[in-house]
Design a protein that fits this description.
single chain, 549 residues, alpha/beta, Glucose Oxidase, domain 1, 17-stranded mixed β-sheet, two-stranded antiparallel ribbon, 14 helices
């Protein structure tokens, strides 16, 4: 989750506005359930719901109880669970990230200056005197005629990489990388993947708040402590030895030590034909030990069987996990409770299950999928996409819920990836019934489409819908909505302050859940098969899947 709404105190005090009345043609969404499930999952007792911890065990037991009470059936051959093989890596004895051989030596401190870890299931990582290369945006895209690694072998070297795409500052959506709209090439996940394919020893991304879409506090809290990776037979030994982030100011000093100017390099990296730049004589060194624990986390699978076409499936997804213990705040609180992100979305799964059961069995089956390890790189949903419990060719489409709006009722919703699939028409009809409108995301440069669990299913061809609470608030308009987004991102996102608040305004959340209900119910009652639009990146995958159904 990235850009949800949580109303700041300054905006929480105006006179109350009457809640929008729930339409009579759909079941009542159970607000007490939403509050209870959110508060329970976000309590300190659940310790931030990190996979592989006692917090996971409590979460799984609680969700099974809630799904069962809602009237769902165990969805995986009589089991509520799908095992997801993971490995937990906890770095310790982390040395400074040291750069030598340049004009001045540079020693970066773990936490304030840089964060790093490894995907390798290795007890010890040691990088010594690795040559340093500035690799621009770290993109190799043959179909676009773009290769930031062109002409240079980076095997065994440390690459310094910029976040986002080269054209993220464009005004419109025209450009080699969709202009202002981020492509997958702009995501940190891709950049580490490509650095590994190139044979780099280490990949370090330069943090810059605007193109990253979040501050250093988010990077530090997300990348410190135990990290989850998918288990692998090869121990991920084909990955870089280390990957991580460094502060923008530290990157400036590093480039200067190597006789380069970071601003000039960043400008050059935006232009076609950029070639990587070696920082001559500069060498990087970093070492740390790893505690490694393999375990099986779990996706929770609930099923409402269809009455006419039970072998066709509609998905609702939300991730139950959060960061667990994280960087402590000034008060010493080190539990990242993840109330908004994503106890609220998980609570919506339960509330929607109750509503659909109350309405009676639909024609198609509905799957309620609470996935693990979203915060570790969409690992739970990726595992489901690669190992589906229900055939993807028979999965009609799905709706992902990653954090609900607590800013109050809004006139609009923000659709992430609007125009990509035929699911937009279903949402438009639901919006019309509620007297609301859809708008495209205002900040496509932040790459939200690639940052939540819908992406894992989309990559497998399944049409997925993802929208967030709107910014045009009934109380306060767009100014209040944008202020709420900024407040949450700056003060609570991926930090200990993302806690349950009994004073939250649930009007907007309830209105959005009604949209989730209407859209999912229509999908479950129709015989149509919505698809990706012609020319969309996922269309060919879906067509091939359906052809072999």
């Amino acid at each position: 989750m990235i850009r949800t709404l949580a109303l700041p105190l300054a905006l929480a005090l105006p006179l109350p506005v009457p809640a929008l009345a729930a339409p009579a043609d759909i079941p009542q969404i159970d607000l007490p359930t939403l509050k209870e499930v959110t508060q329970t999952l976000a309590s300190d007792e659940f310790e931030g719901r990190a996979p592989g911890t006692p917090g996971e065990e409590r979460t799984l037991a609680y969700l099974v109880d809630q799904f069962s009470r809602a009237g769902l059936k165990p969805g995986n051959k009589g089991s509520w669970f799908q095992d997801v093989p993971l490995a937990e890596i906890t770095a310790k004895n982390i040395s400074p990230l040291a750069f030598t051989g340049g004009k001045e030596p540079l020693s970066l401190t773990y936490g304030p200056d840089f964060v790093a870890g490894t995907y390798r299931l290795a007890p010890r990582i040691e990088i010594k005197d690795s040559p340093v290369v500035f690799a621009g945006y770290g993109i190799n895209a043959p179909e676009k005629g773009w290769n930031d690694y062109a002409g240079l072998d980076v095997k065994g070297k440390t690459v310094i990489i910029l976040i986002n795409d080269p054209d993220y500052q464009s005004k419109g959506l025209e450009g080699p990388f969709n202009g202002r709209a981020m492509t997958y090439y702009g995501r940190w996940t891709y950049k580490f993947e490509e650095a590994a394919r190139q044979g780099a020893a280490a990949a370090i991304i330069v943090h810059d708040t605007e193109p990253a879409a979040y501050g250093w506090n988010v990077v530090q809290s997300s990348w410190s402590g135990a990290q989850q990776v998918a288990d692998a037979e090869n121990g991920h030994m084909d990955q870089t030895m280390a990957n991580g982030w460094m502060q923008l100011g530290a990157a400036r000093k590093l480039m200067a030590s190597g006789g380069q100017d970071l601003d000039a390099l960043m400008a050059a990296a935006k232009r076609p034909g950029f070639k990587p730049v070696e920082l001559r004589q500069v060498r990087a060194s970093l070492s740390f030990d790893n505690d490694i624990r393999k375990h099986r986390s779990k996706n929770v699978v609930g099923l409402l069987p269809g009455k006419k076409r039970p072998g066709e499936y509609v998905l609702y997804t939300a991730h139950w996990d959060h960061l667990g213990r994280c960087t402590a705040d000034a008060s010493g609180d080190d539990i990242c409770n993840g109330a908004i992100d994503n106890a609220t979305g998980t609570a919506a799964l339960v509330a929607l299950a109750k509503a659909h059961v109350k309405a009676g069995p639909p024609d198609r089956s509905i799957v309620f999928l609470a996935v693990t390890a979203e915060e570790s790189g969409l690992l739970g949903s990726q595992y489901y996409g690669e190992n589906p419990v229900f055939p993807l060719a028979k999965t009609v489409g799905g709706i992902n819920m990653d954090a609900l709006s607590m800013a109050g009722a809004a006139r609009n919703v923000m659709v992430i990836g609007r125009g990509k699939s035929g699911l937009d028409a279903y949402l438009e009809r639901a919006l019309a019934a509620e007297g609301r409108v859809a708008e495209s995301e205002p900040t496509p440069e932040k790459g939200y489409y690639y940052r939540s669990d819908h992406f894992s299913l989309a990559k497998q061809g399944v049409p997925m819908l993802y929208f967030e609470g709107g910014e045009d608030l009934v109380q306060g308009g767009r100014q209040a909505g944008l202020a709420a987004v900024e407040d949450y991102t700056r003060n609570r996102y991926h930090g200990p302050q993302d806690e349950y608040d009994p004073k939250w305004n649930w009007d907007g959340a309830l209105a959005d859940i009604r949209l989730y209900y209407r859209t999912g119910r229509e999908l479950a009652m129709t015989s149509d098969w919505p698809n990706w639009k012609e020319g969309d990146e996922f269309r060919a995958i879906r067509d091939k899947s359906r052809a072999g159904k």
